């Protein structure tokens, strides 16, 4: 457990005022991002059958919460880590056309998470996905979409400021783009997370691109599942967060793998056995649309805009007793 206590922290809003602000941010953002990206809200599963290959493998080491049930003998059901794969399947099933998309609420349990100011065992985010053409699988498409998301966050900042002027955390006016290799070349003496902190402190908001593949050193900036994002066309939206003196990730997103990128990235991780799974077979046989998509943290966005010190101030989860006690001593009121 690692807990950072900002000096002279003032939550500014009471618990009930915070709850009202959370509701306003969530309802307003999902409406505006839906309009901006042409997304339609769909219902989504909380769990999937392991045999479908639809669950997100994240970095490949996190264990999903799983269970069995008498009515489905032989099946193992897993609570989703994210809906990265399910969304692409849903776009095909619901007959979405090019430049149409969906968004949905995703709730996950990350039982192996190391708890701190930003990380909870409970994950809540807007998962979104949009159909594009194969020709639009480009860096230009990726950057344009990032700028659209950033514009919605900036507009929401103004709306939250109008309602809660004393609580709003000010965001930069623009977002900077950089690749993981450029970061490694610029700061070779730093770790990957230290590089993210350094570049975010300099620019305020950064989209770090090309996550998952190997750098020229043979190392990886960070892990990424090989079967949804194309590692050459993905990235994370990060903000410099002054209260905690570190980068705060709001979104992980990217253009999804086509049949060639899927084979290449599975081979890179020696995971070719996944090619036999139903989802992967659909990609190989070009039965799923080409898409761009990602996740946007609901609690993290609330935390960012309200200047909160701990994610537990904007979501209900479970925490170690010693963390709860220390937070309360410093005016960090956990829900």
Automatic annotation (TrEMBL):
Molecular function terms, GO-annotated: aspartate-ammonia ligase activity; ATP binding; catalytic activity, acting on a protein; transferase activity
Pathway it works in:
Amino-acid biosynthesis; L-asparagine biosynthesis; L-asparagine from L-aspartate (ammonia route): step 1/1
- Write one Pfam family the protein is assigned to: AsnA
Q: Which UniProt keywords apply?
A: Amino-acid biosynthesis, Asparagine biosynthesis, ATP-binding, Cytoplasm, Ligase, Nucleotide-binding
Say where the protein is mainly found. Answer: cytoplasm
Reactions mediated catalytically? L-aspartate + NH4(+) + ATP = L-asparagine + AMP + diphosphate + H(+)
Q: Where is the Aminoacyl-transfer RNA synthetases class-II family profile domain?
A: 23-320
Which cellular compartments is it found in?
A: Cytoplasm
**GO cellular component terms, semicolon-separated:** cytosol
| Ligase is among the record's keywords | yes
Q: Which domain of life is it from?
A: Bacteria
- InterPro entries per record: aa-tRNA-synth_II, aa-tRNA-synth_II/BPL/LPL, AsnA
A single Gene Ontology biological process assigned to it is: L-asparagine biosynthetic process
Q: What EC number(s) does the entry state? A: 6.3.1.1
UniProt similarity note: Belongs to the class-II aminoacyl-tRNA synthetase family. AsnA subfamily.
Q: What is this protein called?
A: Aspartate--ammonia ligase
